[in-house]
Structures are given as structure tokens and as C-alpha cells.
Amino acid sequence: MTKHTRRVLELGAGLALALTVVLTAYADWHQRTAARVRADTVRLHILANSDTWDDQLLKLQVRDAVLAALPPAVTQAQSPQQAVRALQTALPALQAAADSALHRAHSPQTAALRLESHNFSARDYGSFSLPGGEYTALRIELGTAQGRNWFCVLYPSLCISGSTAAYPGADENALVFGRFEVRLAVADFIGRLASPAGEAVSGLPAD
Question: Per-residue DSSP letters for 142-187?
């Protein structure tokens, strides 16, 4: 075996090891961070009566009325626990807002509001994404609740127009709003293998 061949095999083995280590670390990071995100999030979930145009429009009208009726104690909460307590207190007012929206639309449908734990699939909202799992949510069921749903986040107040709310931890914000850079970690490891001095050559500093 030539020196060059041996070096190629060593680099290949090093790459495989690096990828395994980084992906394992990422999986652990993702699992722990996702659990914190779920614990630190209060969601809004509105289920329309059906998928007809009128029912979907009605869903949005109820959404707007409920969001407008949210008290500052919810939108300015400093923790998910505070937000949940404020929502529990505000439920009668939010129910009244939903009922008023239905009345203004001359709809015979009813709105059922509940604050409960619910299992959600992972969802991408465009500007942010949330992992799947159990979340505390304000759920609003309109009529038979058989239509397409509308989801958003009440805490942090990402549903509120112009809000700059964020999660308390940098890792949570990285998971929800950004991307974990596996590529850079692997490139750094490969750079160490390739450099005789054992220094990073990927642009990242050596440890």
C-alpha cells in the first residue's frame, strides 16, 4: 500500500468518524432543544367547520377577533406559565370575541375554546418552524371542526404583527429560526486530519 493510498483511507475513515460524531451530537442537541421549545411554547390552533370558502373565511374572522381580544398579560408574558395563567383568566373574553365574530357573520356555528395539551406534527411556518410533539395550546373548534386548521404561536407572541418575540435560550432560537451548521463541524474535523500541524483549515479556529 502506497503512502498516498494509506492517507486517502485514513481521511475516509476520519470523515466517517467525524460524520458519525457530529450527527450523533446533532441528534442529541435537537432532542434536548426540541423538548425545551415545546415546554416554552403556547400555540393557537383554530379548526374550521369545513373546507368551504365561507367556513375558511369565517375561521380567519374568528382568528382576527380572538387575536385582537388578547390582553397584554398574554402578549407581554415573561414565561409560558404566565401566558397560560393569563389565557385561563382571559378565556371568557376570548370566547365572547369568537362568539361576536360568528354573530357579525350571521353564522349559526358555535365556537368551543379550550386550553389544553395537544400533539402537533412538525410544522414550517416560513419564517420559523416548530418540532412535533405535545404543546400547550388554545384550541378553537368552529362548528364540526372538520375543515383545514390555522396554527400559530401565542407565546412567544409570534402571532402578533410586528412582534420581535424570541425564546429564552440561544439553542431554542437556533432550532426555531435558524439552522444547525453540521457542515462546518465536519469541515473543521476534516481540516484537522489534513493539516500536519493538527490545526483547522476550514476557517474555524482550532481548539
Answer: ETT--S-EEEEEEES-TTSTT-----SSHHHHHHHHS---HHHHHH
Q: Which residues of 167-181 are buried (b: 16+ CB within 10 A; e: fewer)?
A: beeebbbebbeeebe
In 79-151, alpha helices (H): 80-104
- Cell digits of residue 18: 467525524
Q: What whole-number distance in Å separates Cα of residue 33 and Cα of residue 78?
A: 19
DSSP 205: P
**CA pair distance 188, 84, nearest whole angstrom:** 43
Return the exposure string of 49-68: e unless at least 16 CB atoms fall within 10 Å of the residue's CB, then b.
bbeeeebeebbeebbebbbe
pLDDT tens for 113-143 read 999 999 999 888 777 889 999 999 999 999 9
The secondary structure of 1-53 as a DSSP string is --HHHHHHHHHHHHHHHHHHHHHHHHHHHHHHHHHHHHHT-EEEEEE-S-SSH
Q: What is the C-alpha to C-alpha distance for residues 18 and 185, in angstroms, rounded to an integer?
A: 8
The Cα 175–Cα 131 span in angstroms is 9
**C-alpha Rg value of the chain to the nearest Å:** 24
First to last CA, the chain: 33
Percent of the chain residues topping a pLDDT of 70 = 70
pTM to 2 decimal places: 0.72
